[in-house]
Every structure is written in C-alpha cells, then in structure tokens.
Amino acid sequence: MMKEENLEEASGDTVEEHESERGFCGCCCIPIHWFKMLATEMHWSFVLGVVVVYGISQGLGGALSRVGTEYYMKDVQKVQPSEAQVYGGITSIPWLVKPIWGLLTDVLPIFGYRRRPYFIFAGFLGVISMLLLSLNEKLHLVLALMSLTAGSAGVAIADVTIDACVAQNSINHPSLAADMQSLCALSASIGALVGYFMSGIFVHLIGPKGVFGLLTIPAGLVFLIGILLDEPSMPNFDYRQVNQRLIDAGKAMWTTMKCPDVWRPCLYMYISIAVSLDIHEGMFYWYTQDSKDGPAFSQETVGFIFSIGSVGSLLGAILYQNVLKDYPFRDLLFWTQLLFGLSGMLDLILVLRLNLKFGISDYFFIVIDESVFQMIGRLKWMPLLVLSAKLCPSEGTEPQATENIELVSLINDVDGK
C-alpha cells in the first residue's frame, strides 16, 4: 500500500511539474503568437515598422535624445537653464505642425508611394543631423539648434507616417484596431524604459556627442523601414490635383475643428498646457550642478530617475485601463487636474530641502517625485487620448480618416513632445 501511495504521489508531482512547465511556456508563447497573428493579418513589415518607430525611434531614441540633449546644452554649449528651455521649445516645433506632415503623406505621393518615401526622408534627415552633432567638435549653437530641430523633424515625420499606416490598417481590419494601439503603446513604453535606463550610462561613458552618434542607429532603421514596407504603388497619380486635394483636406479639418466635441477638448488641453509652468530645465541644472545647495546627481543616477518616471507613466495607463476608465469624464478630469497641480509642489519641497528635515534623502524623494508626476500626468491625459481616438471615423476613405487622426494626434503630442 505504501509503495502504491508513493507512486501515486510521485506521478501527481510529475503531472503538476508538467502543467507548471506548460503554463510557463504558454505565457511566454502568448506574445509570440500575438505578433505572428498581427504579422499574418497585416504584413510583417507593418509590425516591424511600429516596433521601430514607436519602440526604437521614439521610445529608446527619445529617451537617449532627451538626456543627451540636456547634458549637451549644459556641458558642451554651456547655456543657461532659461536659454535651454527656449531652445527646447524651438526643437519641438516639428511636432507642433504634425497635421501638415499628415496632409502631405495623404495627398502628395512620391514616385507612386504615400508612405515609403516619407520614412526614407525621415531616416535620412535623422542620420545626417545626428552625425553633424556627434562629429563636429565646436559646432556653433545656431547650427546645433538647426540639427536638433532637423532630428526632431525626422522623428515627427516618421511618427505621422506610421500613424497613417495604423489608420489605414484600422479601417481595413477594424477588429484588430485595439491590438494595434496596444502594440504601439507597448513598444513605446518598453523602449522608453530601456532607453532611460541606459541613457545615463552612455552619457557617462561616451558623452552627449557620443549619444548623438548612437542615435543614427534608430534613424537608420527608420530609413530601412521605408525600403521594406509593403505598400501598393500609385503609378498614374495626377499631380495636378494636389492643390485641390490640399484645399479639400484643409476644409475637412476645419469642419472637424468646428465640431463642439472637438474644439472644446482642444481648448481645455490648450489652457491646461498654457497655464502649467514647466521648470524642468532649471530643475535639471539644479540637481546635476556640483554645488553645496543641490544633490549633484551623476549621469547614471539621472538616467535611472527618468527610467523610474517612465514606469510611473506606464502604471498610470494600467491604472486608468483597469480602474478609472468607467468613471465620469468630467469628474476624472477635475481630480486629475487638481492632483497634477499638487504634484508640482513636490519640486518646491525638494528645492527648499524640506525633505531632508523629514529624513528623506534627495535620491529617494526625487524618484518618488518623478514617478508620481509622470503617473498623474498620464492619468490626466488618458481620458483625452481616448476621446481623441473616438473622434477618428471607423469607416470612410483613408485620407479623411488619416487627416482627422493627425488633427487629434497633434493634441496628444503637445504634452509629450
């Protein structure tokens, strides 16, 4: 009897071990099957394009560019924090004119293609601008600003073009629209997390100009997507109709903007941004400067702090999806705006060194500050992003849908860029 019981127990343990191994392998295989399904339904080049543009170019490359640019302005160009803030606004101009890039991809095909040439141009622009920044020892500030703006334009054009591809595939495959948005968000979040984690290490090892040299890799991959993307050709396009198509597209966008469901959220977002004072550049100089007043964080520490902030942003999106998405829209906006304002007071506590009086170290406090600020910021914008997505038509002609997507996409990117 004892032998039989032992055999039964041994067989039971073996079955449990096999089931646990099967469960673990199943969890690991789910993302692989998901990627295969998307690649099968829409073509592997589109999936690769989303991963490259959102994950590598915007996520990883954007993180490296942010930290590298801040140290470049501070240590190489040696500008003041107020000047760096103004220059940051100049380099973000390509993101403010995103609807223009979207209109061009819709109404002005090049050599018979609507998307591929714009990917190639964006990648080429990014490679040239980053090489100029990395290889020139004493680049004038004006030329450096022009190069940074050109690099920003390359990323913005690639973003608009992949958005147009997503819009087209969302119309052709409406049941997979949510999966495509998940792929975009997942790629961007993981890319930003990895990029911020490595940014401080790279700045310390090779300097900000070396980081710009590394940024030629994401731009080169965007160029490669322009070559590999599967897109039908339009050999008989009548370029004499471009002006009329631009006029029609502008009228369609103006009609969309006059809709109360569009201009009211736009006005709210504009006012919210306009009255939110951004002192990020000043804070960056303060907590990286070698002085007795500030914490004097190293490059590695700054990169780790920003990576924790990206985790906070990801947690905010998860919290909204699983807990807050069914709350009334106005109530959610009110409380998130209020909490967003209060979270800005954490910087004041740090500058006044009140955290030290409470026995909280600068490192721990600023990690909490960055993660809370990013999480609340994400919670603040998620309802508006969902509203923007709902404004895009689910059916109709491709150019009309893409134009509306780029119109509301401008609203989404003002906060992040």
UniProtKB/TrEMBL annotation:
Keywords: Membrane, Transmembrane, Transmembrane helix, Transport. Pfam families: BT1 (PF03092). The chain crosses the membrane at residues 44-64, 118-135, 141-162, 183-205, 211-229, 267-287, 302-320, 332-352. It is a multi-pass membrane protein. One of its GO terms (cellular component) is membrane. Its main location: membrane. It is found in: Membrane. Belongs to the major facilitator superfamily. Folate-biopterin transporter (TC 2.A.71) family. This is Folate-biopterin transporter 2. It comes from Castanea mollissima (Chinese chestnut).
